[in-house]
């Protein structure tokens, strides 16, 4: 409500200013990076950073670029500008951001709560863009928000937990294995008799170095898409094999409940007719576990701290 | 008068460029070299392709392992019979942990899931997922992608562009790759 008398918005200073007569430059920074406040009424917040909040899905990508840009700016400047996004980061249909995140400007752009519980960005002392309560994120932790958005932006199933990866049994390749899986489906190399491999609950086996980089990104068997069970469940018959190692038993107890989400049938099953690999194992497992699908698995990201990640060139 | 000039200059200099930079940085030109894992895997796929190429496809031999150009022949008895198109498959350094980027080179076939810039939406309405990018798994291969694309072509009943072609192609102009697009499915008939 304090922008009385101001006529323009200075994008460099990120605040409303009052131009000197006939000068089209900001009085405090002398830049011409200004826009008349009247013209800005009705401008969606995203437009401040050149992002256009078209009513289609593309804005989900725009937000990531906007966030990257914002972070650059924040790094070199005081926090005149704050980023807020959606608090309900759980995508309802496995899709990113629902109706879209919003940038809400705090500080120099006046914002107030409106009577209907929404939030309003005020320009020139009057209400500008109204946002519903569901559309903004309240709370500290810009970094966490950005991280969450980045994680939601990633495609495909969420990562497997470290504990369930660790618990995946290591097996010695025998003739029996070679009859069903002669090659590692990830690297396409032949398995060697007597060498070691990791075994998913669906019995598909992979080289450890091949399957772990995938699981830390997506909890899904590359061949049949079965997920690793949450640690502690009795889903897998050969689960507690010796060499898997339960190094992080404390972690496993805290994460086990959360990850009982099982699978997402909507994502996987429709492709089975196109899937070039055998999938009978997975189907029976799916029916047996029967967990309800949930997207809340985005809470943890094991990729970042997993030491087995081979991509640190 | 003066005001609008100022505004224009401002938008160009300070808005568009940083955003564009961010966008293009993730697309093809700045691609990193293949990792050793990716190299090994692609060499294997190439050998396998030469021994057992998927029917209707021909790999154009180049010395570039990271970008494959593949000729697609429309299957007989379909709308695309006797037509030949080219696919460009680009692999990221992390292949096969990441899906390759697959586009049709111009001229792209007319198809309800293929945009005029060659981007392909190989998705299914019911699944809200795109088998090219959303549902990628490292067990998939160039071969299996090709077969999916041919089956998408073959099942088409009309030769036309996606309904949102113009808007989509316009949005792609600043270097957006098809992998960055979350496809929103038009229909489940094709």
UniProtKB/TrEMBL annotation, chain A:
InterPro entries: RNF126-like_zinc-ribbon, Znf_RING, Znf_RING/FYVE/PHD
Signal peptide: none
GO CC terms of this entry: cytoplasm
Enzyme Commission number(s): 2.3.2.27
Domain RING-type: 184-225
Catalytic activity: S-ubiquitinyl-[E2 ubiquitin-conjugating enzyme]-L-cysteine + [acceptor protein]-L-lysine = [E2 ubiquitin-conjugating enzyme]-L-cysteine + N(6)-ubiquitinyl-[acceptor protein]-L-lysine
GO molecular function, one term: zinc ion binding
Gene Ontology biological process: protein ubiquitination
Region named Disordered: 230-268
Enzyme class name: transferase
Biased composition (Low complexity): 232-259
Keywords of this entry: Metal-binding, Transferase, Ubl conjugation pathway, Zinc, Zinc-finger
Name used for this protein in its record: RING-type E3 ubiquitin transferase
Organism: Tetracentron sinense
TrEMBL record, chain B:
Sample GO molecular function, one term: ubiquitin conjugating enzyme activity
Domain UBC core: 37-190
The protein's Enzyme Commission number: 2.3.2.23
Record CDD domains: UBCc_UBE2W
Protein name (database record): E2 ubiquitin-conjugating enzyme
PROSITE patterns given in the database record: UBC_2
Lineage: superkingdom: Eukaryota
One Pfam short name: UQ_con
Keywords: ATP-binding, Nucleotide-binding, Transferase, Ubl conjugation pathway
Role noted for this protein: Accepts the ubiquitin from the E1 complex and catalyzes its covalent attachment to other proteins.
Species for this entry: Tetracentron sinense
Recorded coiled-coil stretches: none
